[in-house]
Amino acid sequence: MSISTSDIAMYMQISFILTFLLAVIECPSFVVAPPMTKSTEMTTFGTNVVLTCPPGYTFPDGSNLRSTTCVEGGQWDGQIPERCAGKWVSYWVCFNSCIAVMVLCLLSYGHTIVVS
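RE: above sequence
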């Protein structure tokens, strides 16, 4: 089997057209809420975006890393989470609130609080 010059030229034209068509496929851009970060702002076909929550934060499923890829049809293949949730923030607020409530209770019963 021999390949002619015209076969090679046709293959190159088809390859160029397909490359061009795939390059113009764009997925919708999206904004992430801090403190979540994303690895890139690119939205072209084949782009993989890694979404990360910093230490102390997770996605609702408990993970701190997600990825999604722009696929044919201009859609992201993975669900894009809305936010990172703080794992420790709620405990800290509760701890401070409990201490404040305990101090108010002690003061309301006439106790003196000494801080040393």
